[in-house]
């Protein structure tokens, strides 16, 4: 795992500072954590219009009907040295919210990371993330009982050494979501050389 700059914690509400500080470390965590080793297309599409932001609430479950994801959400943060924690390899079907940034539904770019594969599990929670299409739906259930509903804007693949930190984690004026996993080509050390990033925006909420 690579090092990253120190970041202020969520308690200071410094979402941009924390997110930008953790961006490179998140990519690096996935770089070292993702090593190589049926879809459901029945979901309804949603209109690509922004909704009012939601108050903070910790997310606990992620649903992406078009790629068959229905996963528990854990958390990842930064350790005492400001290094991003790696999503746990022993829970490949779980995704993890980056807790130093906004919660999904709050103003700003909330981030959720997950493995594409692991040495023991060839198809982990975000294996099909790259196949998402514009306007397909992402739902994040939160501890307050609400569900933040997002629509996909775009899906991009970035080389890890050219990761666009500002594009992914920069300040936004609305509630947005980033889903991040590994992708690209395998290196000689059997790690993926890129990150797949899904960009989405809040379209509504449900209870």
From TrEMBL:
Superkingdom to which the source organism belongs: Bacteria
CDD domains in the cross-refs: Sortase_F
Keywords noted in UniProt: Hydrolase
Database matches in InterPro entries: Sortase, Sortase_dom-sf, Sortase_F
Pfam families in the record: Sortase (PF04203)
Protein name: Class F sortase
Organism this protein belongs to: Streptomyces monticola
